[in-house]
Amino acid sequence: MRLILAPMEGVLDHLMRDLLTRINPYDLCVTEFIRVVDMRLPARVFYRLCPELHQECTTPSGTPVRIQLLGQDADWLAENAAQACRLGANGIDLNFGCPAKTVNKHRGGAALLADSEQLYRIACAVRAAVPAHLPVSAKIRLGIDERDSYLENSQALYEGGVDELAVHARSKRDGYRPPAYWHHIAEIRRAIAIPVITNGEIWNAADARRARAESGGSSLMLGRGALALPNLAAVIKAGQQPLAWPEVVRLLLDYSRQEITGDKGVYYPNRVKQWLSYLKLQYSQAAALFLQIRTLKRADEIQQILHRL
Ligand SMILES: Cc1cc2nc3c(=O)[nH]c(=O)nc-3n(C[C@H](O)[C@H](O)[C@H](O)COP(=O)(O)O)c2cc1C
């Protein structure tokens, strides 16, 4: 079974990837997306979103990290994919699932699910620009308003040369509402001859079993569930018990120390609140903690409260 940590903009930064890959058997992580419009981005953009580039593009515990690009222009995506690989990326992931209005307005993310020919052109251009030994993957949803374009789009990406496809088993209109429609992934798997990764609504070991049974695939991508239950991948793959709250507090403290030294704490308060909003789903103590820190804006104030727990 392969387990992949999903890309999550605003939450899954390199510190969180480090923390979660240290305690889980993840096979791969994907960065937050890098937005490509009409230029070759400077190296510092890639290093900021993926500091792992300084260490062979793996997390400190050795899990490979793939760089995710989001955009609609085939040539600029290819140019930036090549740039990422020159900087040491060990693979490129293309985002065709983002539902954000600002992104879709410019025909990026999920908006491209209406244009399988453009998906094909992007896949061809990026595959040609990335050295042959490095993988190019893509991530799609099942459709925009309806769950109806997944076969056409999967086929287009496959024919364009993508090596692997992650499918968030919902339409853009479905948003993040349960359920996930894993059975459609079984249809995709029958239609294309590359690995297909099942994503969406996997919160525990029972969900993982059902996702595998319904999709017929053994590769799973974990998103919000991986933040709600920090050792979810170990629970799924190694039968570990879910972490107890005091162990989660230790992780929160670890994360806080790193964020504070990393950037003077400016960005930490939002990230930790975001993480707590997922931890609340599994731990009632996280809901109480969230209320305590909700209005705090300084990292040291939040850290003091964590130390008192
Ligand atoms: C806050 C947030 C940020 C996300 N950012 C990205 C992103 O940058 N790239 C991407 O392909 N998907 C992104 N996603 C989608 C997730 O990778 C995943 O497909 C989705 O959450 C479904 O999986 P889950 O039900 O396990 O959470 C994001 C989702 C959330 C909730």
Strand fraction band? 15-25%
Q: Classify the helix fraction into a percent range.
A: 40-55%
Helix and strand succession? EHEHEHEHHEHEHEHEHHHHHH
Global outline: globular
Q: Biggest β-sheet: count, sense, barrel?
A: 8 strands, parallel, barrel
**Residue-averaged pLDDT, rounded?**
95
Strand order of the largest sheet: 1-2-3-4-5-6-7-8
Rounded radius of gyration (Å): 19 Å
Structural description of this entry:
- It is a single chain.
- The chain is an alpha/beta fold and 309 residues long.
- 46% of the residues lie in helices and 15% in strands.
- It is built from 14 helices and 8 strands.
- An 8-stranded parallel beta barrel has the order 1-2-3-4-5-6-7-8, surrounded by 8 helices.
- α3 (74-86) runs parallel beside α5 and α11 (245-263) runs antiparallel to α14 (299-308).
- It is globular and about 55 Å long.
- The two termini are 37 Å apart.
- The mean pLDDT is 95.
- It binds flavin mononucleotide.
What key phrases describe this protein's structure?
309 residues, alpha/beta, 8-stranded parallel β-barrel, 14 helices, 8 strands, 46% helix, binds flavin mononucleotide
Quick take:
The protein has helices at residues 14-23, 43-49, 74-86, 101-105, 116-129, 150-159, 183-191, 205-215, 224-228, 232-238, 245-263, 268-279, 284-293, 299-308; strands at residues 2-5, 28-35, 65-70, 92-96, 136-143, 164-171, 196-199, 219-222. It has 309 residues and is α/β, with parallel strands linked by helices.
Describe how the helices and strands are arranged.
Blueprint: E1 2-5, H1 14-23, E2 28-35, H2 43-49, E3 65-70, H3 74-86, E4 92-96, H4 101-105, H5 116-129, E5 136-143, H6 150-159, E6 164-171, H7 183-191, E7 196-199, H8 205-215, E8 219-222, H9 224-228, H10 232-238, H11 245-263, H12 268-279, H13 284-293, H14 299-308
Parallel strand pairs: 1-2, 1-8, 2-3, 3-4, 4-5, 5-6, 6-7, 7-8
Helix pairs in contact: 3-5, 5-6, 6-7, 11-14, 12-13
